RNA sequence: GCCCUUUUAGCUUAGUGGUAAAGCGGCAGUUUUGUAAACUGUUGACGUCAGUUCGAUUCUGACAAAGGGCUCCA
């Protein structure tokens, strides 16, 4: 989307927010409108509803009123006003007055717009003629939101909506939302028996059921193999550590999701919230030479984070998560090359999961709050310059993200687009000059001098749990064969076919095809239906015809009828051929 | 954490101030089946703790959990 189109869309949505404000104030006398901006996928408008309470059921009525009001909105009249005029004009609306006072203080002009029947304080940015342009909008939901996003302030009522220039675009958006709902990983996770979150175990602590555990292991093993191919060394570290460790690393003060400490032998310990300081110990375990670098220390490391109860969400936000973590210790002259390697690795891995569209964010310090970060100005400037150079040389489209840096260094974050066009931040590669100081790391260079290394903190999937949630939605539960927990379901038609089916089951299982034998006393149709709903990629049906065709008890002499989960009948195939076909698909990751 | 909503059997849902209905599932039996649900029977639940009441799953409160939302500034 070009910038102009983007501006137009924002103007359209901002205009819709004004129309919403007018309509709500008409329907609910005394309601006060606060802010109402265009946002990424639409717009919202906050209200202090006074004595009224509204819910999603009231939206059609409000939307109807908006449509009634729309024809009279043919053009806007804009005016600049003084603060005292603003106080007078908006005397019934303390939110507008508060904003006007703040803008005046900030030296901003105070502006109003008026389409003829609804004066509002406004920052500008509207479509020329709403009655003609604003025809494709929809109200989506009602939610609570704090005035100015601060939980100490009053809770207002927020109405979300969206608007698009064309009916097609609006329909597409609505379709996407519905599709996302269908693909919800909590729903599919339940249907396919991938995971549960048990109330007795606790919120944010998912339990992976057999099928989900298989998926986990496939992902974790895949990551391990890809990294081992590239000289990453896997380690294992314990799940708790002395609190002091995190004081030294600085996480204790800068990181707000650490669990409360527990006491062991009069010393305080905490559950591990990040793998970094543990991996530093690997580096520090013996003197290092410049020849040892880059040293890539990797672990699928489980950590515990005390996320606020309100933000927990399925597998997306949990309290126990496994990071596909790497800490790579490099000489400063190796930073560029190692980053290049890492970016290629990320691209390769993500494309195996079907993610091919991405952008890169260069996450930098928040200039206004430099106190949030550890380390001195010189080191930070050096790191930020280095990372921008890497981004520039990468050939990947990138943009700056001020305030998104880690407390110890700037990051490259890769944002991937999924099958529904939603964006996810998974991979991150952070450049750290600060922790080598904290932990007094060094290596001996070619002149025998002690030198500090730099550290790259790398996670590709991020959290394995969250990533599983993402790919469940990416594939809508229809996993490619290499990821499918069950790859083949063997379906004998009648009891007399079970023995033969069991033989085939044994052969495919021994050939590393994840096979299940459905020998329940059910009709073939019911078994097909169940396997299809479970989205098992292939079914192998065995009846009289297959047994008659089969000869010797060898893979090339045993036949089954193969059906795909999409309902395609692939005909009678011998077991050797079927195994081969699946192995090709597994290898190609399709 | 805060605001709103929700919580009835393994799952999806119905319903009531006098302890609850159904489908799927589970179990038992019958059936032995040709590409998305065979038949019969049976089992099984009001989130937890208080309060009001003769009596609470239903009303009130607290707690817990789940869902939506809470930095995108007129």
How would you characterize this protein structure?
This protein has 590 residues and is an alpha+beta fold. It has three domains: 3-166, Threonyl-trna Synthetase, Chain A, domain 2 (Threonyl-tRNA Synthetase, Chain A, domain 2), CATH 3.30.980; 189-237 and 273-475, Bira Bifunctional Protein, Domain 2 (BirA Bifunctional Protein, domain 2, 2-Layer Sandwich), CATH 3.30.930.10; 488-588, Rossmann fold (3-Layer(aba) Sandwich). Helices cover 37% and strands 26% of the residues. The chain has 19 helices and 29 strands. It has an eight-stranded mixed sheet with strand order 11-16-17-24-21-20-18-19. Strands 1, 2, 3, 7 and 8 form a five-stranded antiparallel sheet that branches. A hairpin with a 2-residue loop joins β2 and β3. α1 crosses α2 (59-69), α7 (185-191) packs across α15 (464-475) and α12 packs across α13 (377-394). It is globular, with a radius of gyration of 29 Å. The protein starts with a helix and ends with a helix. The model has no long low-confidence stretch (mean pLDDT 92). The protein binds one RNA strand of 74 nucleotides through β2, α4, β5, β6 and β7.
CATH topology of the largest domain: BirA Bifunctional Protein, domain 2
CATH superfamily of the largest domain: Bira Bifunctional Protein, Domain 2
Alpha carbon gyration radius: 29 Å
Overall structural domain count = 3
Beta strands, count: 29
**Strands ordered across the widest β-sheet:** 11-16-17-24-21-20-18-19
Estimate the global geometry from the Cα principal axes: globular
What is the terminal separation in angstroms?
Answer: 30 Å
Report the helical percentage. Answer: 25-40%
Which CATH architecture of the largest domain is right?
2-Layer Sandwich
Low-confidence stretches: none
């Amino acid at each position: 989307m070009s910038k102009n189109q983007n501006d137009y869309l924002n103007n359209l949505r901002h205009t819709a927010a004004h129309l919403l404000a007018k309509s709500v104030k008409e329907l609910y006398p005394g309601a006060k409108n606060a802010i109402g901006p265009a946002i990424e996928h639409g717009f919202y408008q906050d209200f202090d509803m006074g004595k009224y309470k509204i819910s999603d059921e009231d939206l059609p009525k409000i939307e109807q009123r908006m449509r009634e009001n729309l024809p009279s909105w043919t053009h806007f009249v804009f005016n600049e006003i003084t603060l005292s005029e603003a106080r007078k004009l908006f005397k019934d609306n303390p939110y507008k007055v508060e904003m006007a006072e703040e803008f005046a203080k900030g030296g901003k002009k105070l502006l109003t717009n008026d389409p003829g029947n609804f004066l509002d304080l406004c920052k500008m940015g509207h479509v020329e003629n709403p009655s003609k342009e604003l025809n494709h909008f929809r109200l989506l939901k009602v939610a609570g939101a704090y005035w100015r996003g601060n939980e100490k302030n009053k809770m207002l009522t927020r109405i979300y909506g969206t608007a698009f220039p064309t009916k097609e675009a609006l329909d597409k958006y609505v379709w996407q939302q519905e599709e996302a709902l269908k693909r919800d990983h909590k729903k599919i996770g339940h249907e396919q028996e991938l995971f549960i979150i048990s109330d007795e175990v606790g919120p944010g602590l998912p339990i992976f059921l057999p099928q989900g555990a298989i998926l986990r292991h496939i992902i974790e093993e895949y990551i391990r193999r890809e990294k081992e191919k590239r000289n990453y060394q896997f380690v294992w570290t314990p799940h708790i550590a002395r609190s002091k460790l995190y004081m030294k690393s600085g996480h204790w003060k800068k990181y707000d999701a650490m669990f409360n400490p527990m006491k062991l032998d009069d010393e305080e310990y905490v559950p591990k919230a990040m793998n970094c300081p543990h991996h530093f110990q690997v580096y520090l375990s013996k003197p290092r030479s410049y020849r040892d670098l880059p040293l890539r220390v990797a672990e699928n490391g489980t950590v515990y984070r005390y996320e606020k109860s309100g933000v927990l969400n399925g597998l997306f936000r949990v309290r126990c998560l496994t990071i596909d973590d790497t800490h790579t210790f490099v000489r400063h002259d190796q930073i560029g090359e190692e980053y290049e390697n890492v970016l290629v690795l990320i691209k390769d891995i993500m494309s195996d999961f079907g993610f091919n569209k991405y952008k890169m964010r260069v996450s930098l310090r928040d200039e206004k709050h430099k106190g949030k970060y550890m380390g001195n100005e010189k080191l930070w400037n050096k790191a930020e310059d280095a990372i921008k150079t890497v981004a520039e040389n990468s050939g990947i489209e990138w943009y700056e993200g001020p305030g998104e840096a880690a407390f110890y260094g700037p990051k490259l974050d890769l944002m991937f687009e999924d099958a529904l066009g939603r964006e996810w931040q998974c991979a991150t590669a952070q450049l750290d000059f600060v922790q080598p100081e904290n932990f007094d790391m060094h290596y001996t260079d070619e002149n025998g001098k002690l030198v500090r290394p730099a550290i790259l903190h790398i996670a590709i999937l991020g959290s394995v749990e969250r990533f599983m949630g993402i790919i469940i939605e990416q594939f809508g539960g229809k996993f490619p064969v290499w990821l499918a927990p069950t790859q083949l379901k063997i379906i004998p038609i009648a009891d007399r076919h079970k023995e033969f089916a069991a033989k085939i089951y044994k052969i495919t299982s021994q050939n590393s095809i994840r096979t299940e034998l459905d020998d329940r006393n059910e009709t073939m149709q019911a078994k097909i239906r169940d396997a299809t709903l479970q989205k098992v990629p292939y079914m192998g049906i065995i009846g009289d015809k297959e047994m008659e065709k089969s000869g010797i008890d060898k893979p090339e002499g045993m036949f089954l009828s193969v059906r795909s989960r999409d309902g395609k009948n692939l005909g009678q195939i011998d077991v050797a051929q079927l195994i081969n076909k699946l192995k090709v698909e597994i290898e190609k990751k399709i």
